[in-house]
Amino acid sequence: METKNIMERVKTIEDAFEVTGRPKVDFSNVPEDLRAYFENQYNAVVVTEALNEGYQPNWDNPREYKWRPWFAMSPSSFRFDGASYERSYAGAGAGSRLCSPSEEVARYSAQQFKDIWRGVQLG
What we know:
The chain is α+β, with helices and mostly antiparallel strands. It is built from five helices and two strands, in the order αααββαα. The protein has helices spanning 3-9, 13-20, 32-52, 103-112, 114-122, and strands at residues 66-74, 77-86. Helix 2 packs across helix 3 (32-52) and helix 3 packs across helix 5. The longest helix is centred in the middle third of the chain and has 21 residues, at 32-52. The chain is globular, with a radius of gyration of 14 Å. Mean pLDDT is 87; it is low at 88-93.
């Protein structure tokens, strides 16, 4: 995987849609109080898919690291706080579609698409 190349190609959500071929979805049929969350969740999946370039986590392999962004949240701030990985630990920190193959990709996603991740975490 050419990590630097994909990070140069995916700088906006529009770039992610173009790379993946995923359609933009109209969330107007979702209840208004949940709409932003579901739109951000979908966008996070599209961004992750674009940056992962076909990588699919192998959940049968406990030695394969599955990286995900980690954020520090408080009532007055939201910031990227690092990237972590999980092996076969049964934590519920991120869905399988939001895992990345490397710390570099997880870190880039969190920093470049902070508003999307904030929308997922804070709904």
